[in-house]
Amino acid sequence: MVNESETLGGSLEDLYAFCAVIEFGTLSAAARERGETKGSISRRLSRLEQRLGVALLARTPRSVSATEEGTAFYLKARDALTLLADASASARAAQDVPAGHLRLTAPLDLGVGVLPPLLTRFRAQHPQIDIELLLTDTPLDLSAHRIDLALRATPGNLPDMSYRASALVNFRIVLYCSPDYLVGREPPCQPAQLVDHQLLACRDMVGAATLKLNDGRGKETSLTLKPVMRTSDYASGQQLLCNGVGIGPLPDLIARQSLARGELVPVLADWQVATGTLYAITLSGAQAPARVRLFREFLRKELATLQQPT
User: Fold this and answer.
1) 214-246 pLDDT, tens per residue?
2) Do 73 and 172 belong to one domain?
3) What's phi and psi for 49, nearest 5 deg?
4) Which of 8, 66, 151, 226 is the most exposed place for a label (fewest CB within 10 A)?
5) Are 235 and 113 spatial neighbours (Cβ–Cβ below 8 Å)?
6) In angstroms, rounded to a whole number, what is the distance separating the alpha carbons of residues 90 and 85?
7) Residue closest to 170 by CA, chosen among 186, 153, 150, 157
8) What range defines the domain where residue 141 resides?
């Protein structure tokens, strides 16, 4: 197999120098154009000819001109360098202009309630970007699945250092119920009073009857309860709570819209099950394309707005 770097002279700078000599007529003029010395240009030309094994230029003390082989090589080299410049410009444009395909992945809980209105607004603002959303609670390999950005939350494990994690928003997991559930019932004022209520166990509580709460200031309590229903995700848990099944935990980020519509009310608002952070995960290394950076900042601002008190 031919080594292309040797065929092309090993260095693009040598090619550029050769083309400059042809286009400007002398080594001195080419050196001035490229900001190099005449000796540097001469060494580049000699290196190029040596690697190609052919004389490209005929030199005299007063002039330099292309040989027949040099003229033919120049025409092809010029076209190749033009194509390379066009390709570089296209790559830079893709990096700087927010356009193209945006492939996302997120947990089911976020994809059902939180993301759809945000994606709709983002797409309306940037119609030149088309979006693909993969919903799964299994973390995907971003490179293998060609993922531009993944949404992942703690508590939980963030990916290793081969990825870049950008914090988007902090959230609390707290207790909620529907207003209808409280009709004819006394709202609990202390965690111990939860034993008198119906409990919905969500996600990490599945398979356990222990509810741990903390007040965010170091005070903790643990209650042994018997859930009337269990679910493995917050998306279905939110719907069940809205339907009046009982009291259960939800991330405030997910419950926000139901709160605004009056479908849910907080219970023991000063207590929380846990706190967490939602992250935007991208591949590390080179700067992310403009469409990815734009969407990440859009999410950061929109999610911060969702967390503001109404």
Assistant:
1) 988 888 898 888 889 988 889 899 999 999 999
2) no
3) -65, -40
4) 226
5) yes
6) 9
7) 153
8) 100-310
pLDDT of 97 higher than 70: no
- Number of folded domains that form the chain: 2
Same structural domain, 173 and 139: yes
> For residues 15 and 81, is the Cβ–Cβ distance under 8 A?
yes
pLDDT of residue 157: 57
Q: Hey, what amino acid is at 53?
A: G
Taking alpha carbons only, the member of 91, 94, 78, 86 closest to residue 12 is 78
Angstrom distances, CA of residue 224 to CA of 193, 207, 208, 212, 244: 12, 12, 9, 9, 22
| Angle at CA of residue 239, ends 235 and 245, nearest 5° | 125
d(CA 33, CA 36): 8
Q: Between β-strands 163-177 and 248-251, what pairing exists: parallel, antiparallel or unpaired?
A: antiparallel
pLDDT tens-digit readout, 73-93: 988 888 888 888 777 766 666
pLDDT of res. 309: 61
| Residue 61 in tokens | 């003390």
Q: Which two tokens stand for residue 270?
A: 């000063």
Nearest to 268 by CA among 204, 195, 205, 183: 195
